[in-house]
Specification:
mainly alpha, 8 helices, 2 domains, 75% helix, Arc Repressor Mutant, subunit A, DNA-binding, homotetramer
Chain lengths: 218, 218, 218, 218
DNA sequence: AATGAATGAGAATTCATTCAT
DNA sequence: GATGAATGAATTCTCATTCAT
């Protein structure tokens, strides 16, 4: 029977192995896409034997899901770090939003390949994964909705259908992130793009004929 | 030397074959996804031989692209049908938008599976296809931008960064279409969802402290 | 659409292919046993591609069963050829049995490897195959029982439990065939062995104390 | 230097381990067959580690052989227990045979799964094992032959080819045991089946036309 | 001595594409 | 031109055995 010490060392080694496999998988998935990725490539990248893979993950989809879980956990961990100084008026709200999104964008930068991987390939991996992915989006929408509800309650947001609008915001964010990362918005800096999008979200593109627009606070 | 008549009959038959293969491919791709679809299933659904497939399309990706081309052509044909009565003020603009999007949504209903297929699986099919897909999105964004530019020029839209905003609008539209089709917005009718989104796009969710909001023109 | 002629040629070719695969499988199974046989070896022996195998048989067990079916069909075909001159008394009966079994043994000689294969490996191939095998044995037992019933009815066989005795006869036959083929009965010719066994089956090894034994009619 | 006491304790522990592995192997082999059995399943059933297995047995075939050896030893131990009151005439001989076989059958009941395992799967395990198995059958045949020789010498058995007949008896016994255990002789009790078989072995199924048959001494 | 994590050779199977008819 | 049989490269996954602790 193995000693307590041995058990701990084993557990540590095991965790390291698992992490190494996940890291290798991340690299390979990003490089080849989910469908093009080979288990054999993952293990060789991780410096492990073929059989070892199957001691840690059921199959390719298994490691993809595990990778996603790790990713989601880190994302929400970052969000929870963000101070939630709730704004008192629309200007504060806008400023806080811009600041928050900039921070998110900066953090996301390091994970951008992974994020794009999940957004792009996730829906084709399988029904089970799709549900997981949808759960992630829902989580983000719920976060957005929390802010929106607060603003509506405070009177500095329009009493819109907060659920639908939150979802639209999340969609817009992912969409524009992709556009940006693909270099489809070449004449704006990321900071300006964020401002532009926040203004759009806050004030829309419309202007009452009168001209007293609510937009472009610059 | 075949007669002119014979030649035409052959060409017609060929065209029908091709269409049959495309229709079968559409059904199979929708059912199984791009990666799960089998050429053998497509040809058997089209009532053709395995080898025949390769007389009409280079390979699996080839028929997927051809399917997409046919789809895009039909989409833009529908758009071009739409009368382009340019609006004169923001209320007209909003009303025209709602009406247009409702029309689009109604038409899209019949193609929704195909549309979703391209949106979901397109990015994983290959680099070449991704470019095609991006071209499609760009085309739609350009359409949106045309309207937006007109409105800005006419003074009833905020002078925003029309390019980025157009892209955001397209993204929002596809996102919400997916959400809707997946039943993620259960407490709204499609008509109300469209109004809600148009209002969001026109006026944002913000409200100047003053209260003279620009929103909910209902 | 293919011509009638083409169809027939295809069917013929197909049949040849199938036979070639079965022959190759027989050789490989005999050489390596069921569990040691590789599909890859079968196809290479048949001069076919790996994928071709799976056009003709579901898997290794599939071709094993097909081989068995072909074998059983040929065995019963041989039996049906045998004239069924029913004997009139115990001497005729014994003589006819010896003659029949010699004929069977001679014929079996060419299939002996295959027969042994099925007897030895059959029970380990899978439940489905075991049922098939049992069916074969039952068929043989039924044949034996037919003769036995006739003899009992004619008064020149003991009114024994014909069912159990028939099974025992079949078992004895397979057992001794194996022994013989493994060279475990070295001091008898096959003809003598058959006589010995027939005598044993007819008269047992017992001898009433009186001495008027029923055995050794030689 | 370990004490004598310690050495003995170690040896005892080792022996227990080995027995536990053998017991586990028996269960797994019976459940899954030789080829379907996994070493991992055996060790987990024995509550041992994977590596431990190889400290006790060379490989999977090794434990199978060891299991067989243990089995054979116990079988012959049982036989040696049986009192060998040699019969004086054919009636005594028959009665003694029935009694002996009944006793054997009763004892075999507890080992029937294991016995069937060896009979069925043994021939597919490997040449080495097959020889072992044949040795077992030979041993039984030799036992049978001893009785038979005695009877022939005493004048109450026909002077048949004792070697071949003994083998046939063993084959018949195993065959009918399998038939019985598979429920293929549903209309007889085990006792009746044994009598039926013994009568068959003693007197055959034949009957001289005269009618003074030697059979059915009931 | 015991353990169980790691290994990798090996086998089955699939399916896009080719090609003889 | 149409066909569908043939192909084999490619990939996954298993499991007996080894080995570091």
């Amino acid at each position: 029977m193995p000693s307590e010490f041995r058990k701990q060392a084993d557990a540590r080694r095991r965790e390291q192995r698992r992490e190494a496999l996940l890291d290798a998988a991340a690299a390979v998935f990003v490089r080849r896409g989910y469908h093009g990725a080979l288990v054999s490539e993952i293990v060789s990248e991780a410096g492990a034997g073929q059989g070892t893979f199957y001691r840690y993950f059921r199959d390719k989809q298994g490691i993809f899901e595990a990778l996603f879980d790790r990713f989601v956990a880190s994302v929400f961990a970052e969000f929870s770090e963000m101070s939630a100084n709730l704004p008192r008026n629309v200007e504060e709200y806008r400023a806080a939003s811009v600041a928050a999104i900039r921070r998110i964008a900066a953090r996301a930068e390091g994970n951008r390949d992974l994020l794009m991987l999940f957004v792009r390939e996730g829906p084709t991996v399988g029904e089970a994964f799709e549900r997981k992915l949808r759960g992630f989006y829902d989580g983000l929408a719920a976060l957005a909705r929390g802010y929106l509800d607060h603003a509506i309650a405070g009177g500095f947001a329009r009493p819109c259908h907060a659920d639908a609008v939150s979802q639209a915001l999340v969609g817009m964010a992912f969409w524009m992130a992709q556009q940006w990362w693909h270099g489809r918005v070449p004449d704006l800096t990321i900071e300006r793009l964020i401002e532009e999008m926040v203004d759009f979200a806050f004030f829309g593109f419309g202007r009452s004929a009168a001209g007293g627009d609510g937009g472009t606070v610059r």
